Amino acid sequence: MKKMIGMLLSMILIFSLAACGNNAPAGKSESGDAETLPTSQEEILSESNQKTLEQEDVSGEQATDETPVPSEESAEAEGGKTLVVYFSATGNTKDVAGYIAEATEGDIFELVPVDPYTDDDLDYNDDNSRVVYEHEHPDDRNIELEQVTVDNWSEYDKVFIGYPIWWHAAAWPVDTFIKANDFTDKTVIPFCTSASSGLEDSGELLAEMAGTGKWLEGQRFSGSASKEQVAEWVQGLDVK
Ligand SMILES: Cc1cc2nc3c(=O)[nH]c(=O)nc-3n(C[C@H](O)[C@H](O)[C@H](O)COP(=O)(O)O)c2cc1C
């Protein structure tokens, strides 16, 4: 019996010691952790909040760093872009227009007649050719163009207008473009190519037709003008 009681007491002692041993770490872990966990969660949350704020700050800084965006917008609002508009029947004026666009970093807009001029149409030695007819009938020179208005026209403050000389004047397909657009607040620079004639008063006549815009004197080039010649003229204009 004594043995039984001794065993029972030892078992009770072992159980109570075991229970104490488990409770203590559990108590520390539960109570300690229960006290520290929310703190560390708060820390995590607060860190993550900080990160979010830092990220917001960074993105705020990035937005500040992107100040070129508003400045680009203001450049556009002020204009600042260059457009090279041209009509070319046989390619000479097209080449010069390309050189100007390159030198000015400008955009190009080609005037394309809905009914293009064929070689026969351009034969000014043939009394029955289209150009001779149109030359002799100014009222029939309303040349319809594929496109007469330019996207984002308001962004351009410098507009070059190029054409071949036909009978000492600007080839009339450009008239359709001139009549259809408002050149207010734009600097317009005429240029032409010809076999031998000069610019003469072709630019002034276009300026009169437009009725708006600040028209510069302009420049005549030969049909085989080089890129360097054109670039030199552009540099001298101070309208890069
Ligand atoms: C109908 C017509 C009339 C022309 N009249 C003249 C002129 O009066 N004076 C001149 O020097 N060249 C004249 N030319 C020659 C063109 O102006 C010259 O070849 C020009 O570079 C052509 O440009 P494009 O290739 O862009 O069409 C005429 C050409 C054509 C087709």
Order of helices and strands: HHEHEHEEHEHEEH
The average pLDDT value, as a whole number, equals 78
> Any idea what the CATH superfamily of the largest domain is called?
Flavodoxin domain
CATH T-level fold name of the largest domain:
Rossmann fold
Number of strands: 7
| Assembly state of the chains shown | single chain
Q: What would you say this structure looks like, in words?
A:
This protein has 240 residues and is an alpha/beta fold. The chain contains 7 helices and 7 strands, in the order H-H-E-H-E-H-E-E-H-E-H-E-E-H. It has helices at 2-65, 68-77, 92-104, 130-136, 173-180, 202-210, 227-237, and strands spanning 81-86, 107-110, 156-166, 169-170, 187-194, 214-215, 219-222. Strands 1, 2, 3, 4, 5, 6 and 7 form a 7-stranded mixed sheet that branches. A hairpin with a 2-residue loop joins strand 3 (156-166) and strand 4 (169-170). Helix 3 (92-104) crosses helix 7. The protein is globular. The termini are far apart. Residues 88-94, 122, 124, 131, 164-168, 193-197, 223 line the site of flavin mononucleotide.
